Amino acid sequence: MFRCIIIMLSISCLFAQVETLKKDIYLWQYQRQGVAKLHSLLEHENHNIRLLSVKALGQIQNPNSIGNIAKCLKDSDQNVRMHAAFALGQMWNEASELFLLQALETEKSLAVVNIIIEALGKVGTEKTIKKFIEMFSQKKSPHTEAIAYSCGLLTYRGAHNDSLIRQLIASSLRSSAKARGHISYALMRAKEPRTANHLLQLLYDKNPYCRMNAARGIGYIKNPKTLAHLYVAMNDKDMRVAVNALNALRSFSSVDVTKIVPLVHHKNHHISLTTIGVIGDLKLDAHQQLLKIFPESDGIKKGQILVALAKIKPQACIQQIASLEKPSVLLRAKIAEALGFIDNKASVTKLRQMLTTKNNYILQMVVASLGKISCDDTTEDIVASLKSRDMAVITYAAEALTNKKALSTMPHLIEIYQQLSTPDDIEAMQAIINAVGKMTDSSHKKSIDFLQQVATDSHPLLSTMAREYLTKLKVTIPPSTNTPKVPKVLFTYEEICNLPDFTVEVVTNKGKFVIRPSVDEAPIAVYNFYQLIKKKFYHNLTFHRVVSNFVVQGGDPRGDGWGGPGYNIPCEYNMLRYKRGMVGMPLAGKDTGGCQLFITHSPQPHLNGKYTIFGEVINGMDVVDLIHTGDTIREMNIIVHKQQNKTK
């Protein structure tokens, strides 16, 4: 009996020790600290501790951890090996490549091998390309889809050669629909003229993902012989294919306006808006058709037409602007954008009148347009906008002054910078550092002093930017004297563990859709989302950004993409992929997420491992496809299914 009690006490003690370590790992991951301690825990006897430690190191992304993580590729636990491979890929550092290639030769688990292959796409060089070509040549390889996907990561990074392109083309002819989709993405990202004929074949593939990528790839190649095929693709029944085909037309100088004008009437808003944008960018002679549909169009389409008219027929644009009565905020912002393309005294006068607006969203567009004007000196007008002290306006002003090479304004920008603070003003601070860094040379002592001061900032994003500019200027980089700020932990380990199993009903003015949060992959982001919904934070907010066949984005309390909840949460990179309907977190740099979210219209591999995926739309993607800029989130409702009560 006594012996049993001793055993039970020992087990209880071990359990308590493990739970304490789990809490410690959670804190280190959240605060991006404890790297040395995490290294030591990679050899812990408990496989869950080893797993959590390697996951945390993958989030922290310290390149000094590569060697330690690599040892876990030989761990006895499959999950530890899998996450070690993923973590090495998340270093985005070629130093990981050799370890991954060695593991590829010995690993027996199909699942782990596929993650190793994916990681090599993020860090691989010629050695990886050679290995992938060898693996592609194997008949009925179980890794074909993984290699095809990883090749897309390689070509996106510019890591490809003639042999790989030839192998991709050959492999697509005998591959599954899913593998062909990945190969079409890889060929599109390669932007190689010799892929033109094969992209044309993929443009007629049964898989819409292949057609979508092929259309975009043809646009990159700019071969005039492919133009007729794009005219066919822009009438594809799949919106994503049609939008990509239309956007591809922007690369050609001899587009037949009669082929695309009918699409301005298309019932799908994404297609009609994209068509209007293409007409404007190519300056096609279609202003009469645009003027004809202007009166009956909604505010979003009116704005797109005005921008197109500004590029094609400036006077017609001015006349339509004058005819508008009480335009909405979104339309007034589009008016400001359109005026920036006209660039004459009349447009400058109108923009200067709009500088008095009290709406910062409109003011952003006014400042951006003033930055494009060359017919008059608008520098003083842009500097005057800095008085708004609005983060977004300051960002646009800094960029506009940089474009104008307004060296005399650097003292103004530096003065404004001193009044800003993180996390709320981080993007404005980055814009000012960029402005000063780009306009400064070694003779500007005050600007160099400013950059040297920022180089010692405790915020890593800001100090890194300043150090990069000082390096380019070949001036002294001061030693870092400030200890990096330790982020405040907003949610406890216990709170995260007690998240219920829930889904989210999102009610919009276009209908409802349902999100299933990815609590296991992104517990901090999901808990943050859960708490914000409980506080009714999202009620009556808008979707402020919609990019056709890319994302819809919303959840900003400002309504213009520049707002947040007043705090940041850390990124939680995970193995989920951005396929259609995934919910991700927008960023202004690593670990700057908060309350905004975006939903993908289609697969977006280039976002994987860079933006936290914390959910998926499981019902109502047809509603998501209807959403456009300015549409409203009426409410979000939590639907609890069962209590989790589990540790992470």
TrEMBL record:
Query: CDD domains from the entry?
Result: cyclophilin
* Pfam families linked to this entry: HEAT_2, Pro_isomerase
Question: For this UniProt entry, which residues form the secretion signal?
Answer: none
> What region holds the PPIase cyclophilin-type domain?
511-648
Q: Which PANTHER family does this entry report, sorted A to Z? A: PEPTIDYL-PROLYL CIS-TRANS ISOMERASE-RELATED (PTHR45625), PEPTIDYLPROLYL ISOMERASE DOMAIN AND WD REPEAT-CONTAINING PROTEIN 1 (PTHR45625:SF4)
Family membership noted in the UniProt record: Belongs to the cyclophilin-type PPIase family.
Q: What is the name attached to this protein's record?
A: peptidylprolyl isomerase
Native organism: Uabimicrobium amorphum
Organism lineage: Bacteria, Pseudomonadati, Planctomycetota, Candidatus Uabimicrobiia, Candidatus Uabimicrobiales
